[in-house]
Amino acid sequence: MQKTITLNEFIINQQAEIPEATGNFSRLLHHIGIAAKKVNREINKAGLVDILGRAGHENVQGEEQQKLDVYANDAFMEELQASGECCGIVSEENDEVTTFHEGLCRDAKYIVCMDPLDGSSNIDVNVSVGTIFSIYRRKSPIGQAAVLEDFLQKGSDMLAAGYIIYGSSTMLVYTTGCGVNGFTLDPSIGEFCLSHSNIKTPEAGKIYSINEGNYEKFPIGIKKYIKYCQEKDPKTSRPYTSRYIGSLVADFHRNMLKGGVFMYPPTDSHPTGKLRLLYECNPIAFIAEQAGGMAFSGDERTLDMQPEAIHQRTSFYVGSRCMVKKIHEFLDFFNNI
Ligand code: P6P
Fold first, then answer.
1. CA distances (Å), origin 151, targets 20, 98, 157, 175
2. Residue 223's domain is classified under what CATH number?
3. Cα–Cα dist 236/220, whole Å
4. Which residue of 13, 16, 246, 295 is most buried, as measured by CB atoms within 10 A?
5. Of all atoms in ligand 1, which is nearest to the CA of residue 244?
6. Could you tell me the residue range of the domain that residue 254 belongs to?
7. What is the 3-class SS of 154-174, one letter each residue?
8. Residue 52 — pLDDT band, cuts 50, 70, 90?
9. CA-based angle 240:242:247, to the nearest 5?
10. Which residue's C-alpha comes closest to atom 13 of ligand 1?
11. Of the ranges 51-55, 59-63, 103-107, 217-221, the best mean pLDDT one
12. Are residues 172 and 215 in the same domain?
């Protein structure tokens, strides 16, 4: 029987390959794994205890906070602080940055940008939701409170990115810039075990994911691309299949494994795009590129964007390289005629 490799074993093995590694980064990842198990436990019993429904107030996005949103935010904040390796956090659930610079965290050198429970409006109807995180090295001197510039780094400066998808099984997928690996939670031993080694997304695919309810307001290039997806062409296996869950992690994870593209263009209600750059688009873009895919926002590579604000939104197109390039062609052509 093949030996099971747990997440912690994998992290330590990866650390051993980096001579200058001190174990700080590994400890941070380990605590993210603990938080993921705590959130998984609560999500799995959400239907049985009074944790469903609304927490009774709104988050910075003006969105109704679900109780599990609050629980997930607290769980990740607690574990990141307990790791002693994180000096600051940007979270979708918090208006301002959170800094840790005393006690165990005094010499911490990493910051985290996270969406603790993305797609949480789907929880009450038992649809997959996810946590998204990204890790950067702080830019300001160690030993003092993290500052805004520590969080407004380009995605290309990211050290690691990952997500946890709480679905038919719970998976933690992450990259440190050396490929993408997926770990499935084995409840019988309470460990994330390597199940998807060195994930590569197909160059092309047959799935396009977009909320077509916003069709009327899409840029003309996106309208034309959607029609292109729907045209019959056996040479390019069109018409493609439309799949949209409304939970970024679930839509992206399916497309990464099967081949496909996810689009969130500007809309009337979100003229600069709905998804947040720091803790949704950048981490997903880093994972996509590490798996051989592609991601852009507006008219530039997502990871090259210079963030201006911690809750900044952007348009987002991510997935199989050939499909993302085709979208870029349609936008370039139709937006410039
Ligand atoms: P819409 C969930 O609220 C989320 O942030 C992403 O997970 C998801 O991809 C998107 O919004 C769905 O937005 O407007 O299609 O419901």
1. 24, 11, 11, 19
2. 3.40.190.80
3. 22
4. 295
5. 15
6. 207-335
7. CHHHCCEEEEEEECCCEEEEE
8. low
9. 140
10. 246
11. 217-221
12. no
Q: What is the CATH number of the domain that holds 138?
A: 3.30.540.10
Q: CA-CA distances (angstroms) from residue 166 to 4, 106, 277?
A: 21, 33, 22
Looking at 164, 196, 228, the residue that finishes a domain is 196
Residues with C-beta less than 6 Å from any ligand 1 atom: 118-119, 121, 211, 246-248, 251, 274-275
Residue 118 CA to ligand 1 centre (angstroms): 8
Q: Which residue has the tokens 């870029």?
A: 328
Q: What is the pLDDT of residue 60?
A: 73
Distance 251 CA to ligand 1 centre (A): 10
Q: Are residues 310 and 287 in the same domain?
A: yes
Which of 176, 196, 216 represents a domain boundary (last residue)? Answer: 196
Q: Same structural domain for residues 40 and 176? A: yes
Number of domains observed in the structure of the chain: 2
Residues 15-42 have pLDDT tens digits of 888 888 778 889 999 999 999 999 999 9
For ligand 1, mutation pick of 215, 275, 279 (most atoms within 8 Å of CB): 275
Instruction: Please tell me the pTM assigned to this model.
Output: 0.95
Whole-number Å distance, alpha carbon 70 to ligand 1 midpoint, is 18
Task: For residues 205-220, give the mean pLDDT.
Answer: 96
| CA of residue 249 to ligand 1 center, whole Å | 10
Which ligand 1 atom is at minimum distance from the Cα of 269?
14
Do 237 and 182 share a structural domain?
no
Verify that 143 and 223 share a domain, yes or no. no
Q: How confident is the model at residue 123 (pLDDT cuts 50, 70, 90)?
A: confident
Residue identifier of the C-alpha nearest atom 10 of ligand 1: 246
44 and 180 belong to one structural domain: yes
pLDDT above 90: residue 230? yes
Q: How far apart are the CA of 119 and the centre of ligand 1, in A?
A: 6
